[in-house]
Design a protein that fits this description.
There is one protein chain. This protein is of the alpha/beta class. 41% of the residues lie in helices and 22% in strands. It has 14 helices and 15 strands. The strands form three sheets. A five-stranded mixed beta sheet has the order 1-3-2-4-5. A hairpin with a 2-residue loop joins strand 14 and strand 15. It starts with a helix and ends with a helix. The relative contact order is 0.07. Keywords: Redox-active center, Repeat, Signal. InterPro entries: PDI (IPR051063), PDI_thioredoxin-like_dom (IPR005788), Thioredoxin-like_sf (IPR036249), Thioredoxin_CS (IPR017937), Thioredoxin_domain (IPR013766). It holds the Pfam family Thioredoxin. It comes from Batillaria attramentaria.
Length: 392
């Protein structure tokens, strides 16, 4: 020990460096809670846990690490009933042996007891893992003796939609839908207000107020891109139109719904307020339909606005779009529009997901979707970028 030598010093330095790197290079979920044997036993008796038993050198574990970290970001908060955790089996060998871990990674969901667990054997993508956690959490909620949350009180005036019933229920008319999770604190606080909103519109044939439990209908919530709870979405004829971002008082929500219904009963788009005579409007901006669309865009440049009459952004753009049509009336480009509430087929085929959607076509082929400012000058600059090539 008195004389290690240069080679020995280098080796010791390398070993020490590797040890530090291994400790700092945690690619198995930095946001997941890490447990040893003592902390593990006490933690799982207090709360439900989804645990990854892993080895740092394991390739499958490394590939799962980023996804496990995303799962931890979703669930490791004060309102969640589940903790996403991990155990390094190269360090906690006795703990992993106690839980019959024979391969890596091993994923187990614990229901507050070491012996009460479900071993996960499904796909390791984020959506599959979330669905599993939701199912296990929901089952635990049903099996518990805790008093029911206010969600149960909504059944009289609200329809609970599922993966199977959603499409048929929402295919016609207006729908204001709450996407929630039973364990979510914000959802619980909103529940009585949402119930009251349902009662306010119970006799209204134009709109239905309903809800979706995302721990049950995980596929539907994924399809609707629900990222947090509660998410409040407005639908028209089966299509998602807008996510509500306002206040959650009964008056705020009721005002939003009434405003949407009132907007829908307004005058035809682009002709309100008597600003533009109908005859001139037809000359400046072509109104395209499912039947005329392909023929209209088959030759030359056509800049098309896909809109909905009730859309506020569309209404604000309407006079600017008419001005654009007037400015290019004698130039090699057509300015047109499509009402997606009437011409659903052509809007679907062109991937329209929001309003207004502005797309430039040339000889029947989609060139580019416009994403810039909707001022007249910016729209003209966009169009001129295409017409200059033709004029040359």
């Amino acid at each position: 020990m008195a004389h290690v030598g240069k080679f020995g010093i280098v080796c010791l330095a390398l070993i020490f460096t590797c040890a530090i790197s291994s400790a700092e290079d945690d690619d198995h979920g930095a946001d997941a809670v890490s447990y040893d044997k003592e902390s593990f036993q006490s933690a799982i008796s207090e709360k439900k846990h989804f645990v990854m038993f892993f080895a740092p050198w394991c390739g499958h574990c490394k590939r799962l690490g980023p996804t496990w970290n995303e799962l931890a970001k979703i669930y490791n908060n004060d309102e969640s009933p589940v903790t996403i955790a991990k155990v390094d089996c190269t360090v906690e060998t006795a703990l992993c042996s106690d839980h019959d871990v024979t391969g890596y990674p091993t994923l187990k969901f614990f229901h507050k007891k070491a012996e009460d667990f479900v071993r996960y054997k499904g796909n390791r993508d984020l959506d599959s893992l979330r669905k599993f956690v939701g199912e296990q959490s929901n089952q635990a909620e049903k099996d518990s003796e805790a008093p029911p949350v206010p969600e149960e009180e909504e059944k009289e005036s609200l329809t609970e939609l599922t993966d199977d019933t959603f499409k048929s229920f929402t295919e016609r008319g207006f729908h204001f839908i709450k996407f929630y999770a039973p364990w979510c604190g914000h959802c619980k606080r909103l529940a009585p207000t949402w119930e009251e909103l349902g009662k306010s519109f119970a006799g209204n044939k134009q709109v239905a107020i309903s809800k979706v439990d995302c721990t049950v209908s995980n596929d539907l919530c994924k399809q609707m891109e629900v990222r947090g709870y509660p998410t409040l979405l407005w639908f028209k004829d089966g299509e998602k139109v807008e996510q509500y971002q306002g206040g959650r008082s009964h008056e705020d929500l009721k005002s939003f719904v009434n405003g949407k219904i009132q907007d829908a009963s307004g005058s035809p788009h682009g002709k309100e307020e008597g600003k533009i005579p109908e005859g001139d409007d037809e000359e400046k901006v072509a109104e395209l339909t499912d039947e005329t669309f392909e023929e209209a865009i088959a030759e030359g440049l056509t800049f098309v606005k896909f809109f909905a009459p009730w859309c506020g952004h569309c209404k604000r753009l309407a006079p600017t779009w008419e001005d654009l049509g007037a400015d290019y009336a004698d130039k090699p480009v057509s300015i047109a529009r499509v009402d997606c509430t009437q011409q659903k087929s052509v809007c679907d085929s062109n991937g329209v997901r929001g309003y207004p959607t502005l797309i430039m076509f040339q000889n029947g082929v989609k060139l580019e979707e416009y994403k810039g400012s909707r001022s007249l000058d910016d729209l003209k600059k966009f169009v001129d970028g295409f017409t200059k090539h033709i004029e040359l």
